[in-house]
Amino acid sequence: MKSCFIASLTPFHFVILKNRARFPSNLSYGSSRTSCCAYHQNSKIHSTSPMAADRYPPPWFSVAPMMEWTDNHYRTLARLISKKAWLYTEMLAAETIVYQTGNLDRFLAYGPEQHPIVLQIGGNKLENLAKATQLATPYGYDEINLNCGCPSPKVAGHGCFGVRLMLDPKLVAEAMSVIAANTNVPVSVKCRIGVDDHDSYNELCDFIYEVSSQSPTQHFIIHSRKALLNGISPKDNRKIPPLKYEYYYALLRDFPGLQFTINGGITSIEEVNAARTEGAHGVMLGRAAYGNPWQILGLVDSAVYGAPLRSITRRQVLEQYQVYGDSVLGMYGPRPTVREVVKPLLGLFHAEPRNVAWKRKVDAAFRHCTTIKSLFEETLGEIPDSVLDAPITEVPSGSTDKFIKAKSLLPSPYTVKEEELLYA
Description:
The chain is built from 20 helices and ten strands. It is of the alpha/beta class. It folds into two domains: 59-306 and 402-411, Aldolase class I (TIM Barrel, Alpha-Beta Barrel); 312-387. The longest helix is centred in the last third of the chain and has 15 residues, at 314-328. The radius of gyration is 22 Å and the shape is globular. Residues 63-370 form the DUS-like FMN-binding domain.
């Protein structure tokens, strides 16, 4: 590969948790806890401070938590491209953390380059949420997020959490209080705008009001579609229920003391900036940021945060990623495999010449390549040098009025019910 741009990159398996605290299994809290993670390189330390907002840029842009997608490999790639985007883990069930205490690094460890990073957990049992948060806290995540939006039958059905939790705001408030009591970083909720027939704006507001007034939760990520739990697939749940951005913007009006991030149906930096121009506190992208990381993440720092446009190229990103990838292969027995480590790269040449031919060659190389380096040597010849060595380009000019239209459709202002005021 051309050039020699191998920057310092700490593979996440170099994270060694020191002096992991043993916490009580009950739900009584209040004791101070300090812990750190020591790193093999440069003595880098995770710190758990409630002032993450002061140490990192605000969460104007974030990448959504996506099961089997936003793993350590993808987050490593994302951070090589964008230094400012907020990254979320995959949803990790509280029970997984609680019952894997001897193997926590496999689920919770990450490289220090990934800050700012948010851990998303799922569950509905308060004791397990407490224990999971206790165990995760020493890893130094910058925020803990509870999943109240996943419509998957495995989560919302048999597990009775995910988006089903929106039907029980009292439980969510209790869960958020338990989580907050066991960490010293902010907590947040990711939810939909409704569930099945419980999809009125007032019902959404009832949920937001109860959770925010009965727990320390001040940040909500709003997927602007409701969820249908009548057997349709998670994929259809991202398409069939209509987007109602007007609900999101009404929340900004009716809850001025809270922070809201908008999510759902936003696919470009142009739309990110349009949403923010209309007042969005933050914007979260999911599959667009995964499927086209160069044109999405590559523009975040300059177009969203106003930083100078970086001169990094895809070739340089791949050189750094190869160092990481080869260092983690087989860390846990047979896994991760070459295929798993390379998976996040398959969108790196989105819409570029020879992209399809390259992916075909990569698919064939999976059968015999045992290192990331050998796979790159065998396949990257398919991609023109003009693509590999082209720097990130500016976001195209233009505007979108989808959010302007949404603001013209705002529902009537929310009025807190008398019984809710008494309860509060």
